[in-house]
Amino acid sequence: MNKSPINTNIQSGSGTTTTTTTITTAPTATPKKSTSSLSFSSTSVNNTAQQQQQPIYPPTSNITQFAPFDQYLLALTSQDHRTRVEAILYLQSYHLPLNNQENGFDLVYTVKKQLSSEQDKNIRVQLVGLLKSLALDPFVESTSIIHYLLSTVIKNVHTSKKVICASLIAIRSVVQSKNLKLSLLISSSIQPLLNHPNPLIRKECILIFGHLVKTSEELDEIQMILVNFLRDPDFRVREASLRSLSLLFYRCHNLSINKIYQQATLLLVDSFEQVRLECIKLLWIFSNVFPNHILGTINDRKKSDKIRLVDDVFKKICNAVNDPSVVVRNCACKLLGCIYDVSLHYLIQTLSKEILFDHDNKGRKKFQIGHSRYSNAGKNQKQQQQQVLSPLQQQLQQQQHQQQQQQQYTTIQVPEGDIDFMASTDSSLSLVDAGATGAFIQGLEDEFYEVRSSAIDSMCELSLRNNEFAQKNIDFLVDIFTDEIESVRINSINSLRKIGKTITIKEDQLHIILASLDNSSQAERQAIHRLLTTIHLTNFSCLHATVQALLVNLQKYPRDMYSIFECLYKVATKNQFTEFIAEDLLRIDSKFASVEPNMDDIFYVAIMIVILNSAKNNNTILSLLPPYWVQHHLYFKDKYPAYFQQNIITTDTNNNVNNYSLNSTYEMKLKSQEDLTLFLKNTLSMLYGSNNGNDDSLYSLLKVGKFDQLSILMEEIQRNLLRISNINRILKPTSDFYLMFIKVLKIIIHIKKELFSSSNSQQHIIAEKLIKTSFKMQGLFIGLDNKIQSILYEIRLYGTIVLTISKMLNLNDPSPFASPPYPSNIFTNLQSSINIYKTFFKDNLMTIPEKNQEIMDTIGNYIIEQQQSNINQRPFKMQRTGINTRQLLLDKLIIFLKEYQLPQLMIQNQIKKKVVNTLMPPFEKPIESFDNLPIKLVINANIENISNVEYLYLQVNYLGKSQLYTIGSQYFVPIKPLSYSICLPIYVSLPKSQKQNKEMVQLTVNIIEIVPIDPYSTKILSFEHINEHFKLVNLRGNRISFNIIN
Amino acid sequence: MGIKVVPLGAGQDVGRSCVIVSIGNKNIMFDCGMHMGYHDERRFPDFSFISKTKQFTKTLDCIIITHFHLDHCGALPYFTEMCGYDGPIYMTLPTKAIVPILLEDYRKISVDRKGETNFFTPQMIKDCMKKVIPIALHQTIKVDDELSIKAYYAGHVLGAAMFYAKVGEESVVYTGDYNMTPDRHLGSAWIDQVRPNLLITETTYATTIRDSKRGRERDFLKRVHECVEKGGKVLIPVFALGRVQELCILIDSYWEQMNLNVPIYFSEGLAEKANFYYKLFITWTNQKIKQTFVKRNMFDFKHIKPFDRHLADAPGPMVLFATPGMLHAGASLEVFKKWAPNELNMTIIPGYCVVGTVGNKLLSNAGGPQMVEIDKKTTLEVKCKIHNLSFSAHADAKGIMQLIKMSQPKNVLLVHGEKEKMRYLSDKISKDFGVPCYFPANGVTVNIESSKLIPIDISSKLLKRQILEYSQANSKQFEDQQQQQQTHQQQQKQDNSDENINNLDPDEQPFKKIRSPITQLPIQGILVAKDYQNLKLLDPSEASSELSINNINLNYILNYKIQTNNKSTTTSAMDGLEILQDRITELLPHDQINRINQSQLVIKNQVVIQFDKVQQQFTIRWSNHHEQLFSDIYKLLEKQFGEQL
């Protein structure tokens, strides 16, 4: 009514809203400026001026890395930009998780306060992030933080997108990990954000929903929202909805398949690969949750069709194998392997390009779009038939042929093996939606090896569950043996091995496998060796081919020796055809007398492994062998105990060959494991005495002090143990351990008997030997229990005492009265040894035997006394008393040694010995080293039963010097649990020889493990400390020796 | 506008690929090849179709060559140098490098051996190559203001590319030759989901479905190995570049693996040159070769040696790769003549042979012994085994379908194949994808109607603002409804009767609708048409600057007097402004409302309300930008104070 234009004003600008105050120095922007000014320093007059105006870095922020907590709180509200940021960062990384509730309260309060006043949105994001970490802290009440985020941060219209996003992420991570009862509140306050223009915010909302659902009503509602948002214009939101749906499944909610499935399948053709990827993952979940749900589909002929859900999903994922994106293809190939319970019909389809379709009502008509594997067989037959035809008929056929050609108008020939489907039918088969057809063929032909590898994995997985599928698989897995990428080849070899037990491999397939033995990659060859052990060889020609191929391999790559032996050993024990090829292998001709082969010839060894190991099942083989085999066997079983049976002789022939048996007192037939165990037990009873009070045992003799009778008994025990070690692989470590123990016993007896009667220098050596042996026992075996370890510590203590005494006597000797008191360092060893001993017992809650405790107390007291007297510095008095106490101590110690009873050491569990097998360098000619240049030596070894490889080193010995080399972790290739093979080069530089002439230097390499003397000390390894705190234990492999001309 | 396509070659045929496409007012020539089967003028496309007066440069906007095979580039020097085309030519870098070698080779055979005249000279090839502009993979080149082209990887041979050409809203994809299955040295073709109006695809193997690749390779190796073991000679006719590199890698590594020492030869010096280029353009090869070339370049063959002519008569087994691949001339034919009569020998033709070549004749009756006419004078009795193994790097039917699925075209046109097979495939395509499919013969024009879309550019400022407003409105609406529903539910609880269930449903319907994503959005703006540019939808403020029209700002002032009759309702004069403020805050809860002083109120920094308590009068100032806001306030005023009127 009164509305009238009074003033018209013409403005030229647009005149919109004023922006918020911009911050002049954003911390992120400053470094850029600095670099630019640096790079253009020549024209930097203006720039330097700028620099003065805006300091590039604040000189130092007044906050340091390890400031007290309160200071950070202060810094959070500081005026300076950088200080605030740093405070947040430091708080997040150094002060979380919090250590008390009060701090948490303070911090949350401060952060909230700062958030309300903070202008910089980047810092606000940081602050929200800090709140998030706080909310996850056990000392902080997270409900209030979520309330705060929901009510003040998100509701506020002026909050920037980034801050909202950060808050949503914060809420999500809290909801994810803490069980809160806020889901209704959260969902109602978040839902308005679902229509936010920023897709990232929508995405975060959707993701929260996935974590939110608790009850079934909520589920219905949220499920609908998620399904609706599958249609979001932004792909990130679509992806998030799919992920949330999957998450709901993972959280055991039961989604309605009818509502979701159709919607989800639409996303299979989404333009974004991430969406497609999530989509097939979701479908995969469906297939595993509701495999037998029946879907109604409409096929090409407008007929309704029914299909099980799992089959439908399988088909869809198979289609995804054709996806343009590698990521999706790879994932699809992986998922195919873990869909369970797919109909066999579809599984088989994946392996052939044949298509099945419904032709008419009568039933299925098979239409083959061929794979040559199946069609070739038919073709060959036809060709054979043709050959049978008479020449006349052939001519006729040719004429027909030519006529046909004249009629044929086509110019592009269909290549052999391929199929022209035009001629076959005018059917309505679809080429695009071929479903499962040929999916694996496609996967195996993929351009990217990741995809191929996944396809192989899946095929292997499916094969394990389905025999028929497995059988059809072999061809394809064998085909992959020629793949370009090594890892793919190895994968297929290993896959074949895994399914090897369920399938039979045809002869031609075997030949392809054997051909791969020529491969230059060691890993691949070894994989094939392992594969060969699982394959069932169907006839003797297969066996022959296998053995020959392995021999060729051995010739070409001698360093495969152990792997090949192992393979031959297993192959031989499994099959029955050896008798047919034995003669051929040994090149025996009945007409001529055979030459006795060289026993060190590894080919001969390989052949004998095959023959003698199959003889276990088939005695007729032995009769075929030339007579010298018995001697050879004796040699082999000592040299290669792992690959030769100890006694292949059956009971009948036992007498003939029994002459090599060392022990005639025991007539036990040591064949079965039980026998051996009993034998071991008996031997041990000789050592310790049996339960029924047998007094003849070694220990009882020892107690009485009848040293003379001991030696015979001990010899016998030793012999028995040695025998067990030789015969049985399982008991070998145990008996080896006992053997070493006997050695210790011997030394101790020696000490008891002859100590202090002989010269001093020997005592020293003997003590050292005792300590060393105990270390060896500890270092070389794994699985020793506490009892045994305590005995080992005791032995070491004993040894140290002997050592100390010898030192004391040494000092004593020249003039017992004039000598100054013992230098304190005499006892350091002993003291540390006692400490270790004590801590071990304490840690393992064991009680120290009385006598040991006594002697340790005595020593301890003495040492303390001496220290005190040293402090008191009364030399004369002390000297006198010192001598007395000293003599007293010495006497006590000697008595202790003499009366010492070694506890009974019994191995209860099965222990394992650390074993190193090294391969000799192939060359026989000495290596020449030139002018001090390092020489490359390649070390090949297999190590077994090593739990911690980081303590392994290579010790190189030459000219009486030794040097340690580390072995990089990348050189350990695991073979079996706790077993590795090593193949590494080391570079040794020898000192320049003094002489003009070159001379031969013998250089040996050992693999050693470093065992800590004190397991409770810090395990920092550095070479200077090795002598002080660690002991080197040589893992008794064969020494690798090199001859070098220097 | 629409798209017009005329195949000058390769329409219902294989050879001399040449397709003219007119999009909008632009004419593009895809490929410019020659036909292997003819030796007369039919070997080149009929360029007179383009322009009777030879004004090619004027008519054509550019030539695009997909790869270096002669049936795709053989006529190029003829067209540029002898027919006088002088416009831009595009090809990928490897193609540019290799094309002149092949052209020179072709020239030599035609002129030096057959003694043809009126043929292009080496200088012409050089001049022609100078006009070529290289294009990188996935690079978009703007040929001119309207036409832009982009190259995609096609597999097939080194440097083969598919091209996407776009003019305005209309686009065409021309595939050239491509391969959807990767091989030993090249990857598989790949294209974005570009949704072109037209996809022109090759259909060499339109109705074939390939055997598995590995099986094929093994067959090949087994055959070669068997033949060589029996002492036979194996002839593999190949083209110097392309497939042969794959076969070389295959055989070389097989020889390595099986430790064979039967010699392998490669005829002509072309091989070294070719391998040089393969080494050079390693980025165009597949994953494996790219990854391992540091250790060992796969194209450094260990077992393959160059061939010398006298070796053809040497005794003993051997394997020979000889050019050309279709056995129509050159070394391969020469050697074939020598080796064919021996039944121990074998010839493996790894690819496709054009009609009229010896290779084609051999393959058409590969069954057994035969007489083959080499040329008009000589016939040859062929006793050796003939095999055709599908190493040809063309997509099979499934691959073609896959590419269609990948690019999602609106129309498909088939070239480079046989008529019958094309017909069959086109049926399939139109059935499976529901898009029209054509396969014109040479010289037949196909018109493709495109949907008449008018593109409108929208300013991002406007769009952002509109989306924001719309989404805010939406969420507000949603919140309101949520509240309503809550109250509704409370009522329900009070009522607790059955009939409410029926009431609930209509309520829930809009509720659900709101929680779905915003997929459509009404936009209000100013549509600007200027010069020949696209139409633009702009924000009013932008529109004025775009059209360089001054922005007029109208400021209004309204005096609104409160009638003081009814003092009982409005208690005091001071309250007038306070009441108004309360009301406005209710109405616009999220907006900024500032009380400047006792008598002044500013809303959103834009609408100023003053209250004169003596006169009991509101003075409201606003500008024409805030008409809506004012009218809201005015309504409030009326409601609050107007009843006294």
Automatic annotation (TrEMBL), chain A:
Bias (Low complexity): 7-44
Coiled-coil regions listed: none
Ranges of Polar residues composition bias in the record: 45-57
Region annotation (Disordered) ranges: 1-57
InterPro entries per the UniProt record, alphabetical: ARM-like, ARM-type_fold, INTS4_8HBD
GO CC terms: integrator complex
Domain INTS4 8 helical bundle: 713-797
A GO biological-process term: snRNA processing
Pfam families: INTS4_8HBD
Name the UniProt record assigns to this protein: HEAT repeat-containing protein
UniProtKB/TrEMBL annotation, chain B:
Keywords attached to this entry: Cytoplasm, Hydrolase, Metal-binding, Nucleus, Zinc
SMART domains, per database record: Beta-Casp, Lactamase_B
Cofactor: Zn(2+)
Species whose genome carries this gene: Cavenderia fasciculata (Slime mold)
InterPro entries: Beta_Casp (IPR022712), INTS11-like_MBL-fold (IPR041897), MBL (IPR050698), Metallo-B-lactamas (IPR001279), RibonucZ/Hydroxyglut_hydro (IPR036866), RMMBL (IPR011108)
GO process terms (BP): snRNA processing
Entry protein name: Integrator complex subunit 11
Record region (Disordered): 474-511
